[in-house]
Recover the amino acids of this structure.
């Protein structure tokens, strides 16, 4: 996390701001981002609306910052793991093995991201909101590009089958984000569940590309 | 369509009702199901709210019927194609080859379904809405079970790798629904685009399972 934070050259987030984003991610996931209000987030936090407005001038900004943080979480975890000296397959496996536990650790953030896929967050009105959503698209694109680079490298060296790159990329990204749709944390979950899941999805992704 | 309709033993839908559902799917996709109103759907149709209320007593029911029809579209298209005399791989290829064009033909319906994955449609209040959402879950489950059966058969006869069935199933379902997230119809799309896409996703799915 320290290395990743240094690498992306961002100032660390205050604990108070992070707490608000955590609460917002949960509330947006539960009620839907369109329905949920700053009031709902304050209630979930047991805090005042003022505390939220101190950091986030509007619900649109709060939502955008949740989406941005969702993209940052996986990017900061997975990005530094890519090793140009490794094979595309080894890199892809390592990336997926880091991606899966990270999306499950920060699950509500990624559920909010799914809502945004269907175009519901494109109603930003203020210039700050528009700027943030531009940042989110840039950040997502940067994360996707790491995978695109690995897929491309694999197709070039023949370890992956030659196929439509964009379709392959989008399919692999959906495959490794599939748990966001179905995963429910369980008290009696064996400690091996998440590593096993990451292995299975790595195997499926590599096989789908070979 | 006739065979499928007969098989599922449903009375055909009136043209007026189908038109309203088409409009609702588009409006819910564009504005978000939580934000969109019956007024928005009426405006899109160039019709009165009365016409909509004649068929659907509430927005919740309209939303539920959109989701139910989304599940029916693919089920009626893909279900009858399964041939017990065929190998699991041949069946899976045939199913995906039918599934892909069907989700793209009825794209807004499936975008609404994505919204419902994140738990936003669970706020049904009337007993009719609750009953409809129960039907949707049953219908989706029935569709998933066709794929589950094929995956199970393949693992049993050794043509598919032995792995966690639920995870494999959910992953394959996400993989073949991935185009709902990224596909945009284009004027200059070659006629081969959708068949090629279906082939590529069939190849990826079969490879991921073998």
């Amino acid at each position: 996390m320290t290395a990743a934070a240094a690498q992306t050259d961002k100032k660390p987030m205050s604990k108070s701001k992070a707490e608000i984003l955590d609460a917002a991610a949960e509330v947006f996931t539960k009620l839907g981002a369109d329905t949920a209000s700053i009031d709902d987030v304050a209630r979930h936090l047991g805090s005042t609306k003022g505390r939220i407005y101190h950091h986030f001038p509007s619900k649109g900004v709060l939502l955008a910052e949740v989406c941005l943080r969702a993209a940052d979480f996986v990017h900061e975890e997975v990005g530094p793991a890519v090793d140009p000296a490794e094979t595309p397959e080894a890199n892809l496996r390592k990336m997926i093995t880091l991606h899966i536990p990270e999306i499950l650790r920060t699950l509500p953030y990624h559920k909010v991201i799914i809502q945004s896929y269907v175009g519901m967050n494109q109603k930003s009105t203020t210039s700050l909101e528009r700027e943030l959503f531009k940042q989110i698209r840039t950040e997502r694109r940067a994360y996707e590009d790491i995978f695109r680079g690995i897929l491309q490298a694999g197709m070039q060296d023949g370890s992956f089958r030659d196929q439509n790159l964009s379709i392959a990329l989008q399919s692999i990204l959906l495959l490794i984000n599939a748990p966001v749709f179905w995963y429910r944390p369980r008290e009696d979950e064996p400690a091996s569940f998440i590593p096993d899941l990451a292995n299975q999805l790595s195997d499926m992704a590599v096989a789908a590309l070979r």
